[in-house]
């Protein structure tokens, strides 16, 4: 018998060992040259080491990438001029604001290049029924355009009702653009979309999994944004997707979530975020957008409520939403009340939360007892003991799946948006967040937080946990940089 490997089985093992070592060395150099966070880099190298050769393919398709998106410079310049004029009316209020708050505003502007603006009205919407009602009313009132961007758009009851409304508006002559994530909205098929296309609705899928303009397909980076803009003057964002899972009228076990309705100048920032995503996805030239700029960015009266729109994603290394969360927690003097369905903090966020609690700030974290991700829930539990030891109060929502993504800092800084408190939202997904300064959102958000605590149970210090669940939570934490 001919032996292909000198020394028989020992030669085979030696050859495999050398090949595996070379594979790890090459892959490690490739990952290290990406210059990511050390913990994330090591996690990827260790994960790929457990998947010999297959790991290369996994990293190629799912590993970190940097993306470039075209910025609509003319639109940004026009929006900045409007924002400057809007905020001029609040100059006295701004001057009287604490220095830390003024620095927070500057951080947001510098990290995502969007100027703080104002709103004439901000409304907290609780759960799907109230949110869908407000969105449908705004769409019915639209006269020029309706823009929608969603991670999940399901062809179920609420999805069909919204589709039919968009068809009606398009037939009235209103410009309707619908941008959905290709992965999150994968159930949208040709049959469901046919009425939209026949009525003239423009539909686009963000990061379709096929190889298109990019040689390397983008599978891991999704638009997790939820944006609705009507005529450039009414806008919505928050955690609620278009699905019966978030509609209490359709399901008794619907997700508990919140959303935000905005009127006024700050809507222009949501508009610009949508249009840049639209141009990136469709390849539509900026000239077409410029021709519509007067309708897309209409002049509005200055409002009484300062609003800052934050955007983040793999096209910007500044991690604007992450930075703002951490900076706001460090700034807190009285309280930090955080609600998130997925709690997997990095070291900066964990340090900020524990430091705030140690210096006497009332830090409370509200998470679901059971989320729709077993691994993420287990990883979140692994942080509880450390948080509680520092004085953080941790609560678990027990009345269903909690999907809200909010943070309240003191009485004058309220966050609401699409980003979870985890690595995926802060670094991988395209996210959007609204920061409302003052009490217009802070007070209702505080009331809602306290109401949610009535349906929650406090996590106790020195809680008893069997060995196997404790080991599972600790093991899940090892994957935190990848979650």
Q: Give the averaged pLDDT, no decimals.
A: 85
**Through-space gap between termini:** 50 Å
Number of strands: 18
**Number of helical segments?**
19
Q: Shape, please?
A: globular
How are the strands ordered across the major sheet? 1-9-17-15-14-10-12-13-18
Structural class assignment? alpha/beta
Q: Please identify the oligomeric state.
A: single chain
Walkthrough of the structure:
45% of the residues lie in helices and 19% in strands. Helix 1 packs antiparallel against helix 2 and helix 15 crosses helix 19 (467-477). The protein is globular and about 75 Å long. It has a 9-stranded mixed beta sheet with strand order 1-9-17-15-14-10-12-13-18, with helices on both faces. The longest helix has 24 residues, at 9-32. It contains 19 helices and 18 strands. The chain has helices at 9-32, 38-49, 54-62, 73-88, 91-96, 99-112, 127-141, 157-171, 190-199, 267-282, 286-291, 293-296, 320-331, 347-358, 374-381, 384-389, 423-428, 439-453, 467-477, and strands spanning 117-119, 121-126, 145-150, 175-181, 202-206, 227-230, 234-238, 258-263, 305-312, 335-339, 343-344, 362-368, 393-397, 406-409, 413-417, 421-422, 431-437, 456-458. The model is unreliable at 211-217 (pLDDT under 50). The chain is of the alpha/beta class.
Compact overview of the structure:
With about 475 residues, the chain is α/β, with parallel strands linked by helices.
What tags apply to this protein structure?
483 residues; alpha/beta; nine-stranded mixed beta sheet; seven-stranded mixed beta sheet; 19 helices; 19% strand; globular
């Amino acid at each position: 018998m001919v032996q292909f490997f000198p020394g028989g089985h020992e030669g085979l093992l030696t050859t495999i060992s050398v090949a595996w070592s070379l594979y790890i060395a090459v892959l490690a150099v490739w990952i290290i040259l990406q210059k990511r966070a050390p913990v994330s880099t090591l996690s990827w190298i260790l994960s790929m080491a457990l998947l010999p050769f297959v790991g290369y393919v996994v990293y190629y398709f799912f590993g970190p990438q940097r993306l470039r998106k075209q910025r609509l410079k003319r639109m940004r310049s026009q929006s900045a001029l409007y924002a400057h004029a809007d905020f001029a009316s609040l100059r006295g209020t701004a001057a009287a604001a604490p220095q830390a708050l003024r620095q927070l505003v500057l951080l947001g502007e510098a990290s995502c290049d969007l100027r703080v603006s104002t709103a004439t009205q901000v409304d907290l919407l609780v759960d799907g029924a109230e949110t869908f009602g407000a969105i449908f009313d705004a769409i019915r009132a639209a006269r020029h355009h309706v823009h929608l961007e969603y991670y999940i758009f399901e062809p179920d009851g609420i999805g069909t009702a919204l589709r039919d409304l968009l068809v009606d508006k398009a037939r009235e002559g209103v410009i309707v653009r619908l941008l959905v994530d290709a992965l999150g909205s994968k159930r949208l098929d040709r049959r469901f979309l046919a009425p939209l296309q026949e009525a003239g609705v423009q539909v686009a899928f963000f990061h379709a999994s096929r190889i298109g303009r990019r040689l390397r397909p983008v599978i891991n980076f999704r638009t997790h944004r939820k944006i609705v803009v009507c005529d450039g003057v009414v806008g919505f964002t928050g955690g609620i997707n278009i699905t019966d899972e978030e509609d209490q009228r359709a399901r008794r076990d619907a997700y508990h979530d919140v959303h935000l309705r905005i009127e006024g100048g700050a809507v222009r920032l949501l508009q610009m975020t949508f249009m840049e995503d639209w141009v990136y996805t469709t390849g539509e030239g900026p000239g077409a957008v410029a021709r519509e700029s007067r309708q897309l960015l209409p002049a509005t009266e200055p409002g009484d409520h300062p609003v800052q729109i934050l955007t983040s994603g793999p096209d910007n290394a500044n991690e604007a939403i992450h930075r703002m969360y951490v900076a706001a927690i460090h700034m807190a003097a009285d309280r930090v009340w955080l609600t998130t369905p997925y709690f997997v903090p990095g070291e900066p966020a964990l340090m900020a939360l524990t430091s705030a609690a140690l210096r006497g700030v009332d830090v409370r974290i509200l998470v679901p007892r059971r989320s729709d991700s077993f691994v993420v829930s287990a990883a979140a539990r692994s942080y509880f003991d450390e948080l509680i030891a520092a004085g953080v109060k941790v609560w678990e929502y027990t009345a269903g799946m909690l999907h809200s993504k909010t943070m309240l800092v003191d009485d004058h800084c309220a966050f609401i948006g699409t980003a979870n408190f985890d690595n995926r939202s802060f670094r991988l997904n395209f996210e959007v967040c609204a920061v409302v300064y003052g009490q217009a959102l802070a007070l209702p958000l505080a009331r809602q937080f306290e109401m949610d605590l009535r349906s929650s149970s406090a996590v106790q210090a020195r809680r008893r946990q069997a060995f196997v669940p404790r080991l599972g939570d600790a093991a899940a934490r090892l994957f935190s940089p990848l979650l």
